[in-house]
Each structure stands twice: as structure tokens, then as C-alpha cells.
Write a structure and sequence with these properties.
This protein has 13 helices and nine strands. With about 400 residues, the chain is an alpha/beta fold. The chain folds into two domains: about 260 residues, 3-Layer(aba) Sandwich (Rossmann fold); about 130 residues. Strands 1, 2, 3, 4, 5, 6, 7, 8 and 9 form a nine-stranded mixed β-sheet that branches. A hairpin with a 2-residue loop joins strand 7 and strand 8. Helix 3 packs across helix 4. The longest helix is centred in the last third of the chain and has 41 residues. The protein starts with a strand and ends with a helix.
């Protein structure tokens, strides 16, 4: 059985983003798996888990609920959320071997939606040409490059709305049923021209339409899917030759312009390069970027030198047959390595945040970072900060454990 996996930032996104498309595939015999990555804020977890289970039963989707839920509210750490989400997507892709992945676009304005979209993008890039096809939907931001249209009737719309009714708590806050129906009617009018060219005929018999953007990973590039109406019995066709790496890999709109609600204090800069910092503010941001990077490297060098000095002391103690002293030194080396990992993780998150802002505001820095990323081979996509701050101390820790264990175990 073919499988499509949907990654939901929140429960209800599977019935707002592209529900008619998922149901069309389900009706054609596909296994539809919905991965609920988050459950909202902690005080909402119990209610939203119950709702997603009810909604999944109504829609005949297979729910998978991440435990613990990924924390990706506006006041949570986005770097930590990205790493968790990347782990979730990798695991589910390995387990399900899905042919199609559906998710929000990485440019959907909502911070959680963009985090999920970015994690899906990163996980698919890691798989190279073996990556499944990626279908993206837009909720808080319209898709600039729709390629796939799903036509559906009033009966399918009623099925979607009936399943969406399970999210009573969210519908009391905002009745998304109105949006789902209104968007489907709007897309029935605009969708054919957006896909097949302005001035074309719009089929009058089509009442409701969902739009998605399809991307395929081919020869290290993102290729746009071919414009078409969805045929659920044969949903996959060869992609077009149009590369969309520039769109998919650029900084998200939320990073570049600020999240909704910030517009009063964060304005778009000239040419869409992010917040409107003047030259002095940009210089301070560049100085901060260099400073945080230098401090990270200096701390790494400090720990590396300290570890080397302990290793020399350990060897000296062994040569002097001071076995007890050597054991104490090995234990101190292991504790120092744990401290090294902790400091690297803490400061690495700060460096990541500063670099994200620098890429959003400083055009030259963004161009260099993106060109380096797109030219790297799959194996080399591991950030150098991860190698120096995580891999190196882990190897040193393994060395200390190897030296310490024989002294702790009985002969």
C-alpha cells in the first residue's frame, strides 16, 4: 500500500491545510498518516490530543502523536524545536517509507508552520534523489507557485467540515470552517489561471479546489512539479525543469519581516532584506555575529587545550606508576568533557539565533551562507559548529571513558 505522511504543526492543521487532497488519496487506497508534531501549549495538551484522535477517526487518518510534543510556541527556543522536528521527520520517513510528504510551506508566516516546513525541507535534502515527493500547502501565507489542484464536491467538503468539527476548542477561538469553505471556493475561481495561465477557461462544474506546491529533489536541486489537476489513481508525474532552490532555501518571511503583530515595530527594509536597520545598526549586528562566533571558537579552544593538558598529566602519572592519580585525572577529564558539551549546546543555540538574524538582515552574509549550503555535498551538510561543539567533545569523552573503565572494573 502506498503511503502519504502529513506533518502537522498543531492538531487541526491536517484538516485545514490540504484535507481534501489527503482524503482523495485515502479514497484511492493510500494509507494516510498524520503526525501531530505539537499539541499547543502545555495546558492544552490533553484536550488537543483527545481532539486529534476524534478527528482522525472521523477522517479515517492514522494519527501519530509525538511524545513529548515539540515545544514550538512563540516563546519557545526555535533552534531546539528545529532539531526535535528534524529528528521526528527523519524517524517517520525511515519508518513509513512514504512516497509523498505533505506539510506547510516553510514560508507560511506562522512560526510553528515555518519550523515544520523547514525541518521537512532539511530531512528531504539529506535523502537526495531518494527523497519522496513534497507537497506544500499555505494557510497564513498564499503559495506563490502552486502546481497541483485538487477538485472536490460538496460531499467531500461536508466530510472535511465534519472531521474539523472535532476541534471544538479551537473552533470556539476561531471558526476555521468558514476559511476552509471560502478558500476552496476562491481557489475554484483563481486556481486554474494560477496553474495553467491567465486568461484560461475555469471549469464551471468545479465547485471547490485545494492548491498545493509540489517539489521534487533531483540531482541536488529542487524542481517544481508540473501544473496539473490531481489524479488520485496516479498522483505522481515527472517534475518540470524549473528549479526553485532560491525560493525554498531563502530565509523565511517571519525571519525576514517579523511575525504578525510585530509590524508596528519591525518594518521591512529596502529590497525586502529584513528589518529596516540603518547602517550603524547593521554594523552592530555584524559585530555581534563575529563576536558570538569568536567567543564560541575561543571556548572550544579553551576546552581543547585543557583536555590536552589533562591528557599529558595522565600520561605522566602512568609513567610514574601513579595509577590512583591517573584514575582521578581521567575522571576529571570526563567531567570537563561534560561541561564542554553543556557550554557548546548553550552557546551554540545563541550563535544560531544571531546567524539567523544576520542572514535575514545582511544580504551579503545571506548570499554567502546560502551559496555555501547549496554547493555542499550531502555528507558535508553537517554544520561545522556541530562538529567542533558536539562531535569533538564526544570523541574526547569516549577516550576518557575508555581510560577510566579498566580502573573501575575489577580485574
Amino acid at each position: 500500500m502506498s503511503t502519504v505522511v502529513h506533518f502537522s504543526p498543531h492538531p487541526d492543521d491536517e484538516l485545514i491545510g490540504a484535507p481534501a487532497t489527503l482524503m482523495a488519496l485515502r479514497h484511492a487506497g493510500w494509507r494516510v498518516v498524520n503526525v501531530a508534531c505539537g499539541l499547543g501549549r502545555p495546558d492544552q495538551h490533553a484536550r488537543r490530543e483527545a481532539e486529534v484522535r476524534d478527528a482522525s477517526a472521523r477522517a479515517h487518518f492514522e494519527p501519530r502523536i509525538e511524545r513529548p510534543p515539540v515545544a514550538m510556541s512563540s516563546d519557545d527556543d526555535p533552534a531546539a524545536a528545529h532539531e526535535r522536528l528534524l529528528e521526528v521527520v527523519r524517524r517517520e520517513l525511515d519508518d513509513l517509507q512514504a512516497q509523498i510528504v505533505v506539510s506547510p510551506s516553510p514560508h507560511d508566516r506562522h512560526h510553528a508552520h515555518e519550523l515544520v516546513g523547514a525541518a521537512v525541507r532539511a530531512a528531504l535534502v539529506e535523502r537526495g534523489d531518494d527523497a519522496p515527493r513534497w507537497w506544500m500547502w499555505g494557510l497564513w501565507s498564499s503559495l506563490p507557485l502552486p502546481t497541483l489542484a485538487t477538485a472536490f464536491d460538496a460531499a467531500r467538503l461536508e466530510e472535511v467540515l465534519t472531521a474539523l468539527d472535532a476541534y471544538r476548542g479551537e473552533l470556539e477561538r476561531n471558526d476555521y470552517r468558514r476559511f476552509v469553505k471560502a478558500r476552496a471556493e476562491m481557489n475554484a475561481s483563481l486556481g486554474p489561471e494560477l496553474l495553467f495561465g491567465f486568461g484560461g477557461e475555469t471549469p464551471q462544474e468545479v465547485r471547490f479546489v485545494e492548491l498545493l506546491t509540489e517539489a521534487a529533489r533531483v540531482d541536488g536541486r529542487w524542481l517544481l512539479g508540473r501544473a496539473r489537476w490531481l489524479d488520485p489513481s496516479a498522483p505522481l508525474v515527472e517534475p518540470s525543469d524549473a528549479a526553485v532552490d532560491e525560493w525554498l532555501d531563502r530565509a523565511s518571511e517571519a525571519d525576514r519581516f517579523g511575525a504578525p503583530g510585530d509590524q508596528g515595530r519591525v518594518e521591512a527594509g529596502p529590497g525586502g532584506l529584513g528589518p529596516s536597520f540603518d547602517a550603524e545598526e547593521r554594523a552592530r549586528l555584524w559585530d555581534l555575529t563575529l563576536h558570538e562566533d569568536n567567543v564560541f571558537n575561543q571556548r572550544h579552544a579553551f576546552f581543547l587545550i585543557a583536555e590536552a593538558m589533562l591528557a599529558v598529566t595522565y600520561a605522566t602519572a602512568l609513567n610514574a606508576s601513579e595509577n590512583f592519580v591517573a584514575g582521578v585525572i581521567a575522571a576529571l577529564g570526563l567531567l570537563l568533557t561534560v561541561a564542554w558539551l553543556y557550554v557548546s549546546a548553550r552557546h551554540g543555540g545563541k550563535v544560531h539565533q544571531v546567524q539567523r538574524r544576520a542572514k535575514a538582515v545582511l544580504a551579503d552574509y545571506c548570499d554567502v551562507a546560502e551559496s555555501t549550503s547549496s554547493s555542499s555535498k550531502r555528507l558535508l551538510r553537517i554544520p561545522s559548529r556541530t562538529v567542533t561543539g558536539t562531535l569533538v567533545p564526544l570523541l574526547v569523552g569516549i577516550l576518557w571513558v575508555t581510560l577510566l573503565l579498566p580502573r573501575l572494573l575489577p580485574p
